[in-house]
Amino acid sequence: MTGARLRPRPTLPSFAVVVGSKTEPLEKNVKKLLAILLVSLALCGPAFAQEAGKKDSKKQFVYVLKLSPRLLDEKNWTERDKQIVGRHFRRLQQMQKDGRLILAGKTLDDADPSQFGVVVFEAETEEEARGVMEADDAVKEKIMTARLFPFRVALAR
Q1: pLDDT tens by residue, 65-74
Q2: Residue 116 has what DSSP assignment?
Q3: pTM beyond 0.90, yes or no
């Protein structure tokens, strides 16, 4: 290899990009990139909107629970009543694991006849929400009465 000279590498002008074997100004490539990005967004945008809509398609509901009047006096609770309420609570825990339960709780003054509990959850439709409420063991077994309302959490911790 005597006499063979290595050719110096060409220096790229500032703000240039190598595309294949050509060097093109960055401005031209940015325009191409923006055009591709805009076309991609136009084509994929509806899919993203549809996916976001799926997340928002779940509605929120609350059912308000009132204890059966006979159970306002603690001495009237039977072992069966306690088991039913245990099943009720385990079901709420499962709803929480499934990501459907937003909040469940009750007032704390057991001697107050106006005491109540609430279950705030998500469902696709009011019919589905009603089914969730009616499948609650405490409601099915008439330990508690329940009323369903459409609901929306406005603020959360």
Answers
A1: 999 999 999 9
A2: -
A3: no
